[in-house]
Design a protein that fits this description.
mainly alpha
């Protein structure tokens, strides 16, 4: 009678633990929670980017009329924001792509946790256990190798998306969260500051035909004051442009690291693991006494 080896017991225990994790579903719930957190974060920053695009467009289209000495001067101080307009557009596209990446990840989690894939994986693992515990199984036949590879591939696929989702969020929390929080706060503040400057630069109503001398004098004074204040407004636009450029690039780095670089590296590692599994000789599944080379 064949005595179970320590290797058989260890492999069996590991496979039973993996099946318990699949049936219990806690990893699936954690993966969904982590993906949902990233998805909401990306949507929030996408809304900030569209808000920035709106206030920049308003600033670029606002024309200021100054008549300090009766001579009309029209110019658009918001044109100083032209260099970052394209950057904000690309920033919004990156945030949209990041939101889509989290959405795709959420769909893949649903697919991996679907009943048909779960039952297929559990069935393949049970078949693998039968192969492991077959009497006198010193060598694997073609069917045994096929069952083993199928079970291992299904297990890798079943847990890969979950681990990518959980690992990506842990990577974000460990290395990217401070940069994200600071950049989001600064971008929201820059959008608010631009909105305030835009409201202050709204054009005045045209003078009435029966305007009195006092009203004309007040209008000339206000125009002169606005002419003096234009430099301060342009300085505010310049500061906002610098803040937006810096923190938009920081935010692009954060989301590209979490939604592009980390998943690509993880998928490459998973692919390498799958290739090794498919090419392996699976000697670690063999058990029983050493072969003598003589057929019984």
């Amino acid at each position: 009678m064949h005595k179970p080896s320590l290797k058989q017991l260890a492999i069996t225990l590991m496979l039973l633990l993996l099946m318990a994790l699949i049936q219990e579903g806690s990893l699936d719930r954690i993966g969904h929670e982590q993906t949902e957190a990233g998805f909401k974060r990306a949507l929030l920053v996408f809304a900030v980017s569209r808000g920035l695009n709106g206030v920049i467009s308003v600033a670029q289209g606002t024309e200021v009329a100054v008549e300090p000495v009766g001579i009309g001067l029209n110019f658009k101080p918001g044109e100083i924001l032209d260099p970052i307009n394209d950057l904000v557009e690309r920033f919004s596209w990156v945030m949209l792509a990041s939101s889509a990446s989290f959405g795709i990840q959420r769909v893949l989690l649903d697919v991996m946790a679907s009943p048909w894939l779960t039952y297929t994986t559990v069935g393949a693992v049970l078949a693998l256990l039968l192969v492991i515990w077959q009497p006198g199984g010193r060598r694997l036949g073609a069917l045994g190798r096929l069952v083993c590879r199928l079970a291992l591939v299904l297990l890798i696929l079943r847990f890969s998306i979950i681990l990518i989702a959980i690992g990506g969020e842990r990577f974000y929390q460990a290395f990217l969260e401070p940069q994200y929080s600071e950049s989001r706060e600064q971008l929201e503040r820059a959008a608010g500051n631009l909105g305030e400057v835009n409201s202050e630069l709204q054009p005045n109503l045209p003078p009435a035909e029966d305007e009195s001398l006092l009203e004309q004098a007040r209008r000339v004074y206000n125009s002169a004051a606005k002419a003096v204040d234009v430099e301060a407004r342009m300085a505010a636009f310049s500061r906002a442009a610098a803040d937006i450029s810096e923190h938009a690039i920081n935010m692009i780095v954060v989301f590209l690291m979490q939604t592009v670089l980390f998943p690509l590296v993880s998928l490459w590692l998973i692919w390498q693991l799958l290739k090794r599994v498919l090419r392996a000789r699976l000697k670690w599944l063999r058990h029983g006494p050493p072969e003598t080379g003589v057929a019984p």
